[in-house]
Amino acid sequence: ENIFDRSRMAPKTPIKNEPVDLSKQKGCTPERNPITPVKLADRPQPDPWTPTANLKMLVSAASPDMRDREKKKELFRPIENNEQSNTPDSLQYDMVDDNTVDEFEKQRPSRKQKSLGLLCQKFLARYPSYPLSTEKTTISLDEVASILGVERRRIYDIVNVLESLHLVSHVAKNRYCWHGRHNLNQTLKTLQEAGELQYGELMAFLQHKEQDWEYKFGERKKETIPESQDRPLLDFSEPDCTSASASSRKDKSLRIMSQKFVMLFLVSKTKVVTLDIAAKILIEETQDTADHSKFKTKVRRLYDIANVLTSLGLIKKVHVTEERGRKPAFKWIGPVEFPGKTDEPRGHSPMSDPLPRMQRGACAPYQIHATGKQRFTRHASFNVAQPCEGTRRKVSSEPSSPHQKRQDEYCSKMINLAAVCRQKIVEDTRTCATETLNSGKNPGTTPGTTSPLSLLPVPGDFDFCVNTLPQAVFPVVQADVPSIPLQNGVSSQTLHPSMPATSKTENGKPTLLPSQPFLCFPSSSLFMLCGDLQEDNLRETLPTTEDVGNKSAEAPAVVLPAACQECSSHKCTSPSAPAEDEEPAAKRQAMEQSDVPLSLVVPKKSFESPKAESTPGSGCTSAVHLEGFHLDLASPAAPLAADKDSTRPLDSQEREKRLQNKDPDEPSPGKEHMYKENASQPFLPQYVYVQPTAGLSSCNFLFSAKQAPSAVSLTASQLPSLSVPCVMVPSAALASFPLVCSATIASPVSPVPDGSFSAAASMNFSMSSLASTTPVFVGTTAVVNPKVPPAPSVDHQQPTHPTLRLSPVLARSCTAVKLDSPMCMGHPVTLLKLQQPSSTPLTPKSIRPACHEAFFKTPGSLGDPLAWKKNEGTQTRNASSVQRRLEISSTSPD
DNA sequence: CGATCCCGCCACATT
DNA sequence: AATGTGGCGGGATCG
């Protein structure tokens, strides 16, 4: 049509037209003149004539597209339009033609007029930036679309971005709730924190990996733009999904991308992010994929996002001149410092809050408290990893020099990787099972990714994760996977964030990455009681012993980010106040421990809590599941373990087998490993770590020495071999752990160590921190505990689901994801992630560390019988993390 | 010619 | 099945 018109026009003259003409002529725009549309008839008016046009007309009558357009023009570009049109057009003589033409033009405003940015401005103009809290404005997509004269699709683009920043929230079909910018700072802050965490980890990770990576984008590297690139990656996972189910679908990549994009800015020192860098980071796929096409697509999306952000006044377009030339980039012009949490009153506990809040997106303006629904829905929030300061490194803050640039590039790469990984992880989380499998194939694919789940922050994990998960989780895949780190990593990551970067995966060894401080633990079973220690120990040990066992969960918890031991200590330990104190001690211990190579390898068998194991189907892993998480993950864990182990694949395999078999009996050797520190006493953190072997997986735990005694004894019994000072705790113990913090522990776990645990727990963590979030868990955990102990045997039967367990504490931090992977086993698997609240200052961190995942294959593993199963099962899947938690807690009691 | 990015097909999700 | 959502990328337009 257009052409058509044009052609006409052209001949006639290029007149562009005046408004007047337009109006007149345009039939379209009836408003002005009603003139009839003669012209229309005559003219080829596009709109009118076309069927669509007619519709439009009609529509426009109500809410006219045409009008809108015109309005837009006028509104937005009144000036321009006028100028343009007038000037040039005016020249023309041909009135008529002009008219026609004009109309066209009007009708067809230039692209700019139709730009998303403009549209967004219009959109924003309709709502107050800071609406009264009292008034809740709801936005009807249809209505807005018609008013603005655009297709609804466009509105989605805008709203999705706004939603990512919590300016609006999706409340119902076609309805969004306008929150305005009240929460913006909070959101940004959260994103910043999340970004840092991620970034940090990533960085570490990436660095590590860099080599591996080839940059696909090689050229792009340059992106290096100033620092911006670096950072972040974030994961974000936002959640928001309003609907509980929300998470479903791919996750909206646009939302996630938007958050990530924002994170990049917030993380970046320069506040300038080039498009390519951002695109790279956002490309899930990793570099590998890097298809050009993908990259292109991402860039397109970024433009969409950038347009909206620009309209919000958060960024502006700039060009970065690099060596090579100028690259398009965006500069953050929004707020940079976020003083405390914003102001908002919210009282949530710091720990989890941030994310949640965001996610919640309640209608209420700031507050995000969500409405019930949303809360649930939200999945993971951002996971942030913790920020490790250490990690950050120089990355570059300033780009200018070439060196820097290089660094930047480097960073960017890393970032990308990290990002990729994360995404993968996320995805994994969701999809995990399947994905995993896939992952083998496609490393990066993550479509939308998103996992609602939390991520693990842990930096290093990737590798681990990768390996581990895949393997562990999905046996099938595993085989393939192992080799591929990234891919694996992705998946695995999802599971455990924590993993250290260590490369071990591939090797199978747990190696430590030089760069990374963290250790990876394969098995989920491990737990760290003490923050610090763990790391060191872990590293060393882990690899060895655990490999398997620890798995992600633990790792994360324990490990934390590679980069930061400190962090870890903070984080890890942090949870427990004591930890700090302990740290030193812990470290020592760790050292000591390290010596111990895994000391324990005990077969879990018996040890595993019978209960759990016993339960067949559930597999569950232990209590944990029950708890809250239910993480179906177990599998992941397992996989992880396995993978991780790359080193010990065997173990994993064994596990699996066992799982299947469930034999609790089997002592799988090795499965349990305890790390202990010698220290038993002091505070230290000794951990005992148990790895679950096959079914047992759930059982493993680490305990601190202190408490250990009792615990130990218990464990010991189970584990014969242990000589280690450490105590092993059954899953239950774990439960207690977390719980420990809270009181819960005590009771529940009774069997073993409760007391001990509790003691320990108390020692280690002060949990209070945990608390906020934790609380729930705790409860749960407690519940769990009981179960745990018992279930020693697993069933064969339900082999399927592996479950992870988290310590309660962890749980809180962690998110569990469940994977269903049909592929995998058919069992749903759940993964846990650890979140680290990085930001949260608090203790929580420590907690996080703690998390461990347990996975068990269903079969026998743990089984906790009942509860777990329940939880695990579907619920887990469905439920959002929050829900899960809730559920868990509820369930746990059982 | 590269940077932008509109447009809308189409898949997936939800109802 | 209808409808809501939103990924995605062709290809047009801008500069």
Explain how this protein is built.
Residues 111-180, 249-334 form the E2F/DP family winged-helix DNA-binding domain. One of its GO terms (biological process) is sprouting angiogenesis. It is found in: Nucleus. The chain is mainly α and 894 residues long. 50% of the residues lie in helices and 5% in strands. It has a 3-stranded antiparallel beta sheet with strand order 1-3-2. The protein binds a DNA duplex (15 and 15 nucleotides) through residues 110-112, 114-116, 141, 151-154, 156-157, 160, 173-174, 243, 245, 248-250, 252-254, 275, 293, 296-297, 299-301, 303-304, 307, 328, 447-448.
| Range of strand content | under 5%
CA radius of gyration is 28 Å
Spatial order of the strands forming the largest sheet: 1-3-2
Helices, by number, come to 41
Instruction: Calculate the terminal CA-CA distance, rounded to whole Å.
Output: 68 Å
Question: Average pLDDT across residues?
Answer: 42
Largest sheet: 3 strands, antiparallel
Q: Which stretches are poorly predicted, pLDDT < 50 over at least 5 residues?
A: 1-107, 203-248, 285-289, 341-413, 419-894
Work out the helicity level.
40-55%
| Structural class estimated from helices and strands | mainly alpha
Q: What coarse outline follows from CA principal-axis ratios? A: elongated
Q: Would you report the number of β strands? A: 8
